[in-house]
Amino acid sequence: FAIRLQKEQYYSEQHSSLINKAYQTLLNPLSRGLYLLELSGVEPAQETDCDADSAFLMEIMEINEKLAEPKNKDNLGEIETLIKVKQEELTREVTAAFERDDLQEAKKLLAKMKYFANLEDKLKAKKIPS
Predict the structure, then answer these.
(1) What is the pTM assigned to this prediction?
(2) What's the CATH fold of domain 1-127?
(3) Other beta carbons less than 10 A from residue 42's beta carbon
């Protein structure tokens, strides 16, 4: 019985870890979308893929430049709102692409979402008092 109890504890720990990982994956639209691509056998876009249009890349560059400016609460709030709106828009578009079973479009949109997730991380780092 004692061995069985240890075995049950081990399985419980393993399953708990897997459940937490699954929850975190499904909680975030980007990681959820990447996981759905993986399930469908589609490789996610890599940083070396150059499918992003120039207007999109210019938009990302402009936001990066704004983030590089000296700390300004109004500026940071504006950037935060812009990033949030773009992420919500991209999430809706990715959802629609998956519903249409257009995996290549979903892949392109998820690549764009990665850029905004990166910007969000930079914004959070900038907001942390130093």
Answers:
(1) 0.80
(2) Monooxygenase (1.20.1280)
(3) 15
User: Which tokens go with 99?
Assistant: 């519903």
Rounded mean pLDDT, 12-33: 89
DSSP state of 45: P
pLDDT at 57 over 70: yes
The dihedral through the CA atoms of 104, 95, 57, 28 has a sign that is negative
Question: DSSP string spanning 51-113?
Answer: -S-HHHHHHHHHHHHHHHSPP-HHHHHHHHHHHHHHHHHHHHHHHHHHHTT-HHHHHHHHHHH
Q: How many residues appear in the chain? A: 130
Q: Which residues contact 36 (CB under 8 A, 6 or more apart)?
A: 98, 106
- Domains of the chain, residue spans: 1-127
